[in-house]
Amino acid sequence: MSKLIDHLDKTILFFIIYSIVFFTFIETLGFTLPFVLALLFAFILKKPTRFISKNLKISASISALVTTIIFYSILFSLLFWASSSIISEVVELGRNVPNYIPDISDYSTHIINKIQTYYNNLDPTVIKAIQSSLSGITSKITTLINTLVKGVIAMLTSFVSSIPYFVMLFVFTLISTYFFTKDLSKSDKNSKLLSNFNDSASKIIYIYNETKKMLLNYILSYLLVVTITFIVTLMGFIILGINYAFVLALLCAILDLMPVLGMPLVYIPIVFVQFSNGQYITAIALCILYALVFIIRQISEPRIVSSSLGLHPVSVLAAIFIGLKAYGVIGMMFCIFLVVFYNIFRKVNVI
């Protein structure tokens, strides 16, 4: 009984400390973001830096400088290409939105005329109610399209106004990445620490290594999930001949991280526009595409995350569901990391 009480006390203490650390990290992320990013990038560059240093017989400082420059050159090129594509397609989309509104209005009028043709014998009040409902739906969808486009344009405008901050963020992240990479790529002292220090030190080093691996695997797993959503959506949009396929697919991938809403914010307006233009097959195909992407997402996410974090798929599903239900995306991250850290601490008999 005493062992059970002791285990319960440790579990409660772990939960309290974990909650404080997690929410402190989230709240202070705006101040520590360049250093967090730099540390993550440094972990990615550690092995290439060691490889270059060992094979070219150069110092860790030089090899870290080389890998950092190459990494940021590739990253900057990809960001520049993606930003250029997004901006050009969003601008063109913004110009063409006013052209879609008359089509939507004409389509709703066409529906009303058909209803009047088939239901002339209905009571006039019923017809008026139907007309009012259709007009309301049309108005809401038109407003949704305008709001979506204005939101994207506002986001781009905000991005432009935040360029000084992003420049500062980039500079600090770049410099920090170099120093972190240089330090991490030097001789790995973990094995020496494990052999020279006591059991407590070994546990600390084990927790550190597992935490580092877990964070990297978590980020890579969700990057893979988002990439799958983006690729499937982009291929579907291209096959169906949807305009602005790249920017819309990218928007779907980003919104896919949002609970409940997400991709429907993009798919619903596109489907309605296709219906209003008489492209019924394309509209139905878009609905099928959304269902396909949704199913792939729901199947792949638990498997990818569980395999990368070494957890049972059911525990990941439970963490995702409870977290999203309780506190959205932040809640999901909280629950997943809670399960992961609990398993890590249990392995070293801390809990």
UniProtKB/TrEMBL annotation:
Location comes to: Membrane
User: What biological-process terms (Gene Ontology) are attached?
Assistant: transmembrane transport
User: Matching Pfam families, A to Z?
Assistant: AI-2E_transport
* Entry keywords, A to Z: Membrane, Transmembrane, Transmembrane helix
Specify whether Transmembrane helix is a keyword of the entry.
yes
Q: How does it sit in the membrane?
A: Multi-pass membrane protein
Q: What is its main location?
A: membrane
Residues annotated as transmembrane: 12-45, 57-82, 163-181, 215-240, 246-268, 280-299, 319-345
Q: Which Gene Ontology CC terms are recorded?
A: membrane
Instruction: State if NAD is listed as a keyword.
Output: no
Q: Which domain of life is it from?
A: Bacteria
Which PANTHER family does this one have? TRANSMEMBRANE PROTEIN (PTHR21716), TRANSPORT PROTEIN YTVI-RELATED (PTHR21716:SF68)
Instruction: State the similarity comment.
Output: Belongs to the autoinducer-2 exporter (AI-2E) (TC 2.A.86) family.
What name does the UniProt record give this protein? Pheromone autoinducer 2 transporter
Q: Which organism is it from?
A: Clostridium oryzae
